[in-house]
Amino acid sequence: MAVATFGAGCFWKPEYLFRKIDGVTETAVGYMGGTVENPLYEQVCTDRTGHAEVVQVTFDPAAISYENLLDVFWQIHDPTQVNRQGPDVGGQYRSVIFCHSPEQEVAANSSKAALEASGKVGGSIATSIEPAPVFWRAEDFHQQYYEKDRSSCYGG
């Protein structure tokens, strides 16, 4: 199994969408990229911890490639928006790919460059590509939340 981590705005909907993909064996929502250890949702929402809301995807590389997951990532949010997605505003909603290996970093950069060159997104891509720091699992309440209450997340 392998792991991929993506920030694409509110973490509820991306988790829901990644869970539906054949070859994805597990997902978890949480926080990455900030300065506070073991942050709580209320702290992250202040936009002062530096964390992004993320979905961590465990997948079988024999069933689905990392490149295919990148394709999904680009399709499920607007990578041209800075520190927001839809009505959700703040650095915790930024578009980010956290890479778990040099190979993921190469693939992410290549994918981003190809999408930008294609002109399909109608603007400059704001997505950052960074080495994966510690993943802090969000509270149980947030796990698979979009499946529990679809009305609470943008795009419901």
Question: How many strands, what sense, and barrel or not for the largest sheet?
Answer: 6 strands, mixed
Order of helices and strands: EHEHEHEEEHEEH
CATH topology: Peptide Methionine Sulfoxide Reductase, Chain A
Terminal CA distance: 31 Å
Determine the strand fraction and express it as a percent band: 25-35%
Extract low-pLDDT stretches: none
CATH superfamily: Peptide methionine sulphoxide reductase MsrA
Beta strand count: 8
The CATH architecture category equals: 2-Layer Sandwich
Q: Which structural class do the helices and strands define? A: alpha+beta
- List the strand order in the largest sheet: 7-6-1-3-2-8
Rg calc:
14 Å
Count of alpha/pi helices: 5
Short description:
The chain is an alpha+beta fold.
Descriptive overview:
The chain has 156 residues and is α+β, with helices and mostly antiparallel strands. It has a single domain, classed as Peptide Methionine Sulfoxide Reductase, Chain A (2-Layer Sandwich), CATH 3.30.1060. The chain is 28% helix and 25% strand. The strands form 2 sheets. Strands 7-6-1-3-2-8 form a 6-stranded mixed beta sheet, covered by helices on one side. Strand 4 and strand 5 form a beta hairpin. Helix 3 crosses helix 4. The protein is globular, with a radius of gyration of 14 Å. It starts with a strand and ends in an 8-residue tail after the last helix. The model has no long low-confidence stretch (mean pLDDT 93).
